[in-house]
Amino acid sequence: MLQALKNRYGGVFVPGKELPAGRDEFRDAMAAALAAWSREGLKLAWLEIPARRGELLPDALDLGFKLHHGRDETLMLVRRLVDGAYIPDACTHSIGAGGLVLSEDRQILVVLEKRDRIDRPEHLKLPGGMLERGEHLADGAIREVFEETGIRTEFRGLVGMRHHHRGQFGASNIYAVCRLSPLNFDIHLDGDELEKALWMPVDEYLAREATSPFNRRVVQAALATAPLPDETLEAYMDAPDSYEVFMADATAGMSTHEQER
């Protein structure tokens, strides 16, 4: 029997390192395992195939597996063992973070991307980009601002989010805008991505016709309200650095007596 790991959702996972060396061995062992898992009442079988073991893919497809997703060195396949069993979709979203960097004297940091320098030379936007795998929103916004402009910042909170369904490869996209405070002011431009970066009076930025509706609205929100702070919850998940939670102040609007109860 193939070595496999069961999960709490009624599924079973076969790691790529546990696969037999030959195609015939693989086909026979997998067929026997699928029959046993079906008798056991399991719902899904997940199969990891290393990219360098691609010769096993036709046999896996013949056994009823379907491609689910791929990474740098592996392909993940899945097969229903029970009709109608729910198969979670592969990653449906990409996630990005932008930095709304606002100084105490109401100067906002904005950038012009190289791709806009000809067709949209007035399209100044907030610095930002895509998160790296395992990266928090706050860390991603701080990193992107520094990489693009050389401005170091401190995280203040989450201002707003945008969600759309026009991302690459059919994925949707979530973009979070974080309020950041600058720790320095001398710009060092990333010449690969940006045409220019500059400090601008925030009122001037809001008044510009070329400012996008989303950027205008998120800046207005940042000026009008306090951002949602990052909060650590007691006895939540394994470690505080493994998650982010953004919540409004739970004591806002409460009387002193209510806060002390």
Helix/strand layout:
Elements: E1 5-6, E2 11-14, H1 23-40, E3 44-50, H2 57-62, E4 66-70, E5 74-80, E6 93-101, E7 107-113, E8 128-130, H3 137-149, E9 153-164, E10 172-182, E11 194-201, H4 202-207, H5 213-224, H6 256-260
Parallel strand pairs: 2-3, 6-10
Antiparallel strand pairs: 1-2, 3-5, 4-5, 6-8, 7-11, 9-10
Using brief descriptors, characterize the structure shown:
2 domains; alpha+beta; four-stranded mixed beta sheet; Aminopeptidase; Nucleoside Triphosphate Pyrophosphohydrolase; 6 helices; single chain
* Sheet with most strands: 5 strands, mixed
Overall number of strands? 11
Q: Enumerate how many helices there are, as a single number.
A: 6
Tell me which oligomeric state these chains represent: single chain
Write out the strand line-up for the largest beta sheet, numbering strands in chain order. Answer: 1-2-3-5-4
CATH topology of the largest domain: Nucleoside Triphosphate Pyrophosphohydrolase
Task: Specify the overall morphology.
Answer: elongated
What class, by secondary structure content? alpha+beta
**Count of spatially separate domains:** 2
* Sequence of secondary-structure elements: EEHEHEEEEEHEEEHHH
Radius of gyration: 25 Å
pLDDT averaged over residues: 93
CATH superfamily of the largest domain: Nucleoside Triphosphate Pyrophosphohydrolase
Cofactor: Mg(2+)
GO molecular function, one term: NADH pyrophosphatase activity
Pfam families: NUDIX, Nudix_hydro
Keywords: Hydrolase
Describe the structure.
The strands form 3 sheets. Strands 1-2-3-5-4 form a 5-stranded mixed sheet. It contains 6 helices and 11 strands. It is of the alpha+beta class. The protein has helices at 23-40, 57-62, 137-149, 202-207, 213-224, 256-260, and strands at 5-6, 11-14, 44-50, 66-70, 74-80, 93-101, 107-113, 128-130, 153-164, 172-182, 194-201. It folds into 2 domains: 5-80, Aminopeptidase; 93-224, Nucleoside Triphosphate Pyrophosphohydrolase (Alpha-Beta Complex), CATH 3.90.79.10. Strand 1 (5-6) and strand 2 form a beta hairpin. The chain is 23% helix and 29% strand. InterPro entries: NUDIX_hydrolase-like_dom_sf, Nudix_hydrolase6-like, NUDIX_hydrolase_CS, NUDIX_hydrolase_dom, Pre-Nudix. Pfam families: NUDIX, Nudix_hydro.
